[in-house]
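Bug report

Summary: structure tokens for BON domain-containing protein differ between web form and batch submission.
Environment: batch mode, default settings.
Steps: 1) Submit the sequence below via batch. 2) Compare with the web form result.

Sequence submitted:
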Amino acid sequence: MPAARPGSFIIDPIPPRMKIESSDMRYRTLPHFIFPTRSSGTSRARRSIGCGVLTLATIGMLPAAGGNFATAEDTTVAASEKRTAKDDTAKDDTAKDDLAEVIRADIDDAESLSVDEITVGSEDGLVTLSGTVASLMDKRRAADVAKRVRGVQAVLNEIIVQPTSRSDADIREDVVSRMKTNDSLEKLEIVAAVNGGEVALTGKVDSLAEKRVAERAAAGVRGVTSVANQLTVRLDPDRSDQELREEVNALIIQSVYLDDLNIDVNVKDAVVTLAGKVHSAAQKERLEAVAEIWGVQKVDVEGVEVQPDSVDQTVRKRRYADVSDQQISQAIRRSLSNHPIAFSAVDQIQPEVHDGVVTLQGTVSRLRVKEIAERLAMDVVGVHRVVNELEVQYDQTPYSDAEIIDLTQKALELSPYLYRRDFRVHCNRAHVTLYGAVESQLEKEIAGWIAGGIPSVVHVNNVLAVEKPQKDKSDEQIKQDLQRKLKYSFYDKADRIQVRVVDGVAILSGTVDTWRQWQMALDLAIEAGSRTPHNMIDVRFHPPHGASDAFVPR
């Protein structure tokens, strides 16, 4: 794995919304930050890590397009993708009018999105989104919502981002500022140009994953209406096609998001070709993102078909039955070594595994790395709990508390979601506390994620109050909305989950295969409008747990 080169940057991925997508888990498409990239000029020793492992699921929730990197705001869909959407429509009872209606309902439930501003069309599994939104992040979130719905083959995103009154010079300054926020180096590896709110990124990165998160970072700046990602990926001669194939295959097998798939992996001249069946357009994007490791020049997913009923529980059962604590430990190390941010700390993190419970020990230089390491560990097949004992010790000259406060305030102002909010930031010995009010849980999570990416910060205490109440729904409406989400977004035997709603509280019972499904059911209940849902669902492929049935925010 190449070592870090002073003066080069890449941007932190989106925070996990320990939902969406991903997100995915679920992931929200949120703003991100910069960290020094790996250089192709030097390489550091790599140890052979066995066959167990999981993905760089940053994306997640949900990932943008990769491979040749058609961007999320592109308004065209490849002809072959259109043919797939028309010729290989999922075999289920979802009529096109129903499909559009389901997507509209889910958009209406999503924070910061308004169904009155977005038009949804559907024909033979090809969904078209149009209308206007206030930010590029909202445009991408709308597409993410559509891609997870059963029966959606592809999404044509024609939503227009309303331009702001901000000048191109101010927007570019903020994009560069975002890069410098997490690293005070002067020389940038990524160059940004802005014209009419449209950002063009040029330069070189070390992986398709870095290319993806760099685009997301630029998209998270207020005033950006589109991002043309012209970044090129350095060729790594140290990784053979055979090594790339083995690594990608292992990452797919150990991903909790791909645990029921049989995917063929082929690599020729650093181009990864994937073939098989997935159950949603969102899962197809995640599969593509998993393959975007360093050394890969392109990922071809033309051979991946979207078939909602392709769930293979025998594959999942075998993978969970066969996994050992040693394999889980190896999987976590592989996930870390292939992650564009956490790779630099793989030798400082020691995962100890006992009966599926992972304890992360060691010292890392950034709070963001600590957070990512926990998520990557939780994303490995066989893991049902993670105890994060990693300590954060900044390895450069630390910023003072006053400097951290200033950097945090400025970073919060860059977000299209937060720039109008009035925050008070306190800092004591690099421990940041956020005070103030926001309108949604999403805004609170974004603020905490941004603060956690500031250099020298070792802990964030997010006490922001959410002022805007949830939509007023009756118990029956919450139940109907949740049952709809379980039917169209759960991709499993949703009839194994029973739903009751009492005084706005959803009570879930039944059986699922994995903890990921357990969490997803909980997330969907919250999305449907339930207050503090109770999750009494049993998990088949894990030992009994002693957790409370009450919802605990992640």
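Above is the batch result. After comparison, the two runs are identical; trailing whitespace caused the diff. The chain has 14 helices and 27 strands. Residues 2-93, 183-187, 544-554 have pLDDT under 50 and may be disordered.
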